[in-house]
Amino acid sequence: MKPTLTTASGIHVVDNQNSLSAGPRGPLLLQDFHLIEKLQHFNRERIPERVVHAKGSGAYGTFTVTHDISRYTKAKLFNQIGKQTEMFVRFSTVGGERGSADTERDPRGFAMKFYTEEGNWDLVGNNTPMFFIKDPIKFPDFVHTQKRDPQTNLKSPNMMFDFWSKAPESLHQVTMLFSDRGTPDGYRHMDGFGSHTYSLINADGERVFVKWHLRTQQGIKNLSAADAARLAGTDPDYAQRDLFTAIANKEFPRWEVRIQVATEQQLQEWEARTGWNPYDLTKIWPHSDFPLIPVGIMELNRNPANYHAEVEQAAFSPANLVPGMGYSPDKMLQGRLFGYHDAQLYRVGTNHQHLPVNAPRCPFHNQQRDGSMAIHNGGAEVNYEAVTAQGSNPSGFGHGDKGWALSGVAGRYDSRGTEDDYTQAGNLFRLLPAQEKQNLFDNLAGPLSQVSEEILQRQLTHFDQADPAYGQGVRAAIEKRRTSKA
């Protein structure tokens, strides 16, 4: 039986086809509340899109523990082999708008929300283990270069490489972006990374630092530049379609969850040997130094019932950690601890955690009250906590973390020219097979053929310092491109 149509307040709508008018030709009457409400809601159907990661796809699933890591963390979601935790995952492109193509050359967001018995844990990452910058104060500038020119409203290779060529720390990620992995074949055939350095705390209060990895069990698959461009024109929602269809057909994608761990002393010794800051997001921890340790399996097995409610309104923040987990001195992580939650307050609303996709599955209680869409508003309970005469009994961050020692004079420190931004980028380049090297050269030659000579020469210098063959290959690809157009 078809349900009765009502207004948002539950009042029966008599006629949804004809507006209330003064006579058959109008004008219309302001008293037609259904018409007014219908148009008002229509005008407000779009919440502001994310500044980054605007276009995404999501699904529900489970995380299952396969290996005991209790020696590293007291977090209850890991406390028993075979234990399952419900979760939600959102994949996305990064720089494009909501209507952009899924196959653009761009990093891919890989954000996970675990609905644990101790609260929600959000692991917010990408399909790359590194990033373009190491200090969050550069983030708005970097993102602006990936968006549209303020005059032409066009994407601008000149803007992109002007920024990258002046920030050699970006070379590691730029190399990954313009390799074959810059255009993954959908979301099921790519790896995921927490990227940042986090920490784990065990029942004895001992802390190790950690990197999170998710290895696709579907196998890595990437699109050629030609296929990515073709699909952008013929099926711009390719990755969305692939993920939704696979789950609908019960071809549930799975990822193996692994970690790298290191004590503070081990990281200090590694930094002394390599010269690399272990908390620098533009660097990785080599597997030869810090082997991968298996933890569990993530499986996606249920599509959302409503895209807007569950995917568009999904809100993530790396600040959401459960007891047994902690942060690190990673500057980019420190910036994101503020930035992500603040973005959701603006984009979705003050009470975005009340929405079903964001709400914890465990009991929760706080003194937060009121604001827009206050679904859980505390009822008759008091909205404050009384000060106790004896004082409180604080214990670190509440996660069992005893904290780490801080040192140094407060100030702004520019590491440009004092840190190694080239070796890891060169190592990545040297790992690529010959054909993938050539693809890298050709992929870079396209946008670099459109930049100013000053920017081009500055960027080529970075390639040279990573590996002379890198710079030589890009030069040859640019010359070939120019000759073919002559």
In words, what does this structure look like?
Belongs to the catalase family. It is an enzyme of class 1 (oxidoreductase). Homodimer. With 486 residues, the protein is of the alpha+beta class. The chain has three domains: 38 residues, Cytochrome C Oxidase, Chain J, CATH 4.10.91; 299 residues, Catalase core domain (Catalase HpII,  Chain A, domain 1), CATH 2.40.180; 63 residues, no CATH class. It contains 13 helices and ten strands. Strands 1, 2, 3, 4, 5, 6, 7, 8, 9 and 10 form a ten-stranded antiparallel β-sheet that branches. The longest helix has 18 residues. The protein is globular, with a radius of gyration of 25 Å.
List the SSEs and their pairings.
Blueprint: H1 33-43, E1 56-65, E2 84-93, E3 108-116, E4 119-126, H2 139-146, H3 157-166, H4 171-177, E5 192-193, E6 198-201, E7 207-216, H5 225-234, H6 238-248, E8 254-262, H7 264-274, E9 293-302, H8 307-312, E10 325-326, H9 331-347, H10 423-431, H11 434-448, H12 453-466, H13 468-485
Helix pairs in contact: 2-3, 3-12, 4-10, 11-13, 12-13
